[in-house]
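STRUCTURE:
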């Protein structure tokens, strides 16, 4: 059957945070926009990523606090009766949040006049995409466009020795680990990165015995050791076992345990009723005709320039498909920019910072330069670096939140006091990412932050005090 053709100005493949934000902004700017999504609007982030994981983390924390109260261990003096967990209700509550947000995205797209097609897209060429229809008696639909935006996201990375589904469903990805129907008795997590530690901590708090196996010699290798220390202490306090510098060999012969090799080369068996493999995600580049475009690639990611243009004219790519950092807010910012470029505005993707937050207990934030990259910059440009930390142990709000551990760190040039980077570790510090991002984008100096009145008592006072300390003027330490 010959294909049926239709036209649109902008065609977007993928309705995750990158694709749907691009569609909203394009429609606002008067661009005729069609968005194709094969699974659910909201993509990885809303359906199987950021949102359900943070909901689970919140529920787990509430349960852990209730367990302390029921066990007579609450330092607040709160005592409660019998503790039970109705996990089905927890999961339904989590699904309700996901549903609210994804239906919200659908409503926004409709309100803005974006045409949304629920189907898998197959690229024919740089101007044509075919919609795969489930019904074999229907003619294939082809959409032609002036601009093609690729926002197909990423998928879980499997380990060859530990394929997903092995051991009669024991080996799982984050998608299944977000939706366990029962709390696993023994959960082994492979990979001490974002997903491994966020979900490993949540399931430990919900009652699982958790062991984390990491190939490198440290947890969260993306962050500096000092920043990770409070998280490592908290994991130990929660009773999570962390095995560093261990190599995964595969399942044991019975398929009931994970075999790992310790740093001395000894084989160790870790019994597990679930094994979460969280060793990274990779751009989704196969199975939808991307190879037909013969785009320049950067490893497994689609190569783009500072405007998210691929090597083919009027073909754009954003989000996880273009590689690290795999973060929803980066995808959204790129999507918004591409829509504006197509509308004829002048834009480049050169943010001063893409803040990263790890929702461990305690949380970690990193924005702008890291200590290592700031040192390298200082060396290359011949300036001295100022670095100052303010501990939450000296912050009233942190103490009243029972969270004295952690600190805020600021990095700045010694010559003109321009702030180069921020790090923080502590309870609820994810919310400080807004202040950090803003100060970096606005080109703030230490004085700008130090002389801003910060409300009392807040964690934000530690941000101000870090700057005061860098200036030699700390008041509360
Ligand atoms: P995706 O969100 O992956 O969306 C791509 C969409 O394209 C998908 O819906 C897919 O179905 C669709 N698609 C693909 N191919 C086709 C095709 N051929 N036809 C039609 N549709 C197609 N990031 C954060 O910033 N903060 C967090 O707290 C965070 N937590 C996370 C927790 C977990 C467990 C996971 C897995 C990820 C987390 N992330 C987090 C990462 C974040 O989810 C991604 O960076 C983000 O979703 C990327 O957005 P995207 O639009 O590029 O791709
Ligand atoms: P990750 O890159 O954060 O961590 C993977 C970890 O697995 C690393 O520590 C790595 O050394 C380890 N590893 C790799 N191979 C291994 C092996 N064979 N054996 C043992 N350990 C091994 O990846 P992730 O946790 O899977 O998350 C994927 C992506 O999702 C991240 O890049 C992140 O950007 C995104 N994400 C973000 C958030 C957030 O922003 N809070 C939360 C979850 C996921």
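SEQUENCE:
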């Amino acid at each position: 059957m010959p294909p049926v053709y239709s036209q649109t100005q902008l065609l977007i493949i993928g309705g995750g945070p990158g694709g749907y934000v691009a569609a909203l902004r394009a429609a606002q700017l008067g661009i005729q926009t069609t968005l194709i999504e094969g699974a659910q609007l909201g993509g990885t982030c809303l359906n199987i990523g950021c949102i359900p994981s943070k909901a689970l983390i919140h529920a787990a924390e509430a349960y852990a606090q209730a367990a302390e109260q029921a066990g007579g261990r609450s330092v607040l003096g709160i005592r409660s009766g019998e503790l039970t967990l109705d996990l089905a209700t927890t999961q339904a509550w989590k699904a309700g949040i996901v549903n609210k947000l994804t239906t919200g995205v659908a409503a926004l797209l409709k309100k803005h006049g974006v045409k949304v097609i629920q189907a898998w897209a197959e690229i024919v060429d740089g101007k044509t995409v075919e919609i795969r229809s489930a019904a074999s008696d229907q003619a294939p639909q082809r959409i032609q466009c002036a601009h093609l935006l690729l926002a197909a996201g990423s998928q879980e990375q499997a380990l060859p020795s530990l394929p997903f589904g092995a051991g009669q469903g024991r080996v799982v990805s984050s998608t299944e680990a977000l939706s366990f129907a029962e709390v696993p008795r023994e959960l082994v997590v492979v990979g001490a990165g974002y997903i491994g530690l966020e979900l490993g901590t949540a399931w430990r708090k919900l009652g699982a015995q958790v062991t984390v196996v990491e190939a490198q010699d440290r947890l969260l290798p993306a962050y500096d050791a000092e920043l990770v220390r409070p998280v490592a202490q908290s994991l130990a306090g929660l009773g999570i076992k962390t095995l560093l510098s261990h190599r995964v060999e595969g399942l044991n012969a019975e398929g009931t345990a994970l075999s790992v090799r310790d740093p001395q080369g000894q084989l160790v068996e870790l019994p597990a009723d679930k094994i979460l493999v969280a060793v990274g995600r990779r751009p989704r580049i196969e199975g939808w005709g991307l190879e037909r475009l013969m785009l320049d690639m950067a490893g497994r990611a689609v190569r783009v320039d500072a405007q998210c243009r691929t090597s083919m004219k009027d073909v754009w790519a954003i989000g996880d498909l273009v590689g690290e950092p795999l973060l929803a807010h980066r995808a959204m910012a790129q999507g918004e920019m591409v829509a504006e470029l197509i509308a004829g505005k002048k834009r480049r993707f050169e943010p001063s910072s893409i803040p990263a937050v790890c929702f461990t207990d305690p949380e970690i934030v990193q924005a702008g330069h890291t200590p290592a990259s700031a040192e390298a910059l200082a060396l290359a440009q011949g300036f001295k670096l100022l670095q100052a930390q303010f501990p939450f142990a000296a912050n009233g709000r942190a103490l009243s939140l029972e969270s004295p551990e952690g600190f805020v760190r600021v990095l700045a040039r010694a010559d003109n006091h321009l702030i180069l980077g921020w790090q923080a570790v502590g309870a609820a510090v994810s919310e400080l990412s807004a202040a950090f991002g803003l100060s970096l984008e606005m080109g703030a100096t230490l004085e700008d932050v130090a002389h801003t009145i910060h409300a009392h008592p807040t964690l934000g006072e530690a941000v101000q005090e870090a700057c005061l300390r860098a200036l030699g003027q700390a008041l509360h330490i």
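REMARK: Residues 159 and 277 are 8 Å apart (CA to CA).
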